[in-house]
Amino acid sequence: MRTLLEEQYAVLADWLDRVPVTEHLSVPVGLGDWTVRELVAHLGLGIGLARYVAAAEPGAVPLSLGDYVRAYPPASEQIAEMTRELSVRFGDDLVGGFRRTAAEAFAALDLIDGEVIQARRGPITREDYLLTRLLELVVHGDDLQRALVRDDAPLLPAAVTAVSAGLTEAYRDRAGAAPAGDGLDWIRRAAGRVPDTDPHLPLF
Fold it and tell me: pLDDT tens for residues 167-196?
């Protein structure tokens, strides 16, 4: 998962430069009042939070992936404020800021021992935490390509499969059954990016 996360980050960062997103910073992305500028900064926040995780205390019981991401909506105002602050800090070098933050995050992750880590929302297994970071890249990479009316964001098939499977398990924990569908279409439903009548959605 660690290798897949870095691979997905690298191809997405390269794509941001190729677009280039710096020519579309004021385009709305359909997430409240956020524009491309805030969403790219949020990519930096998502990967950058890995700089602050640590090994969990012995005996810590890890949250499931579903319980971990369920804590996102109640923290939405805090997340939005942190995103705005990072957007200001990155300034006009948004993609460069994203790259520097990611490099620091990967270095920090590689120094942590143990299979359970203490992250912002609570203890979680290392693999599930890495999956939450991968989820951020896939979901928001897709958000960006949709906002820019493109379909070429490099969402790696292995990354989409891993995120889809993780969200399927989170849905099964909540609903007691598997959801209909998989892949990117399912990820969009699970993330609330498309309308859905399923009362168990969105998952976060």
Answer: 999 999 999 999 999 999 999 999 999 999
Spell out the long-range contacts of 185-190 with Cβ–Cβ below 8 A and sequence spacing 24 or more. Answer: 187/138, 187/139, 187/142, 187/160, 187/163, 188/142
Residues in the chain: 204
Rounded to whole angstroms, the Cα distance separating 47 from 65 reads: 17
Name the residue among 150, 127, 126, 146 with its Cα closest to residue 187. 146
Contact 183, 138 (CB under 8 A): no
Can you say whether residue 179 is alpha, beta or left, with left for phi > 0 and alpha for psi between -120 and 50 degrees?
beta
Q: Are 177 and 127 in contact (CB under 8 A)?
A: no
Q: Is 41 helix (H, G, I), strand (E, B) or coil?
A: helix
User: Can you give the pTM of this predicted structure?
Assistant: 0.96
Segment holding 98, helix H or strand E: helix 94-109
CA 145/CA 153 separation, integer angstroms: 6
DSSP 62: P
Quickly tell me which residue has 């930096």 as its tokens.
44
Q: Which amino acid, residue 173?
A: D
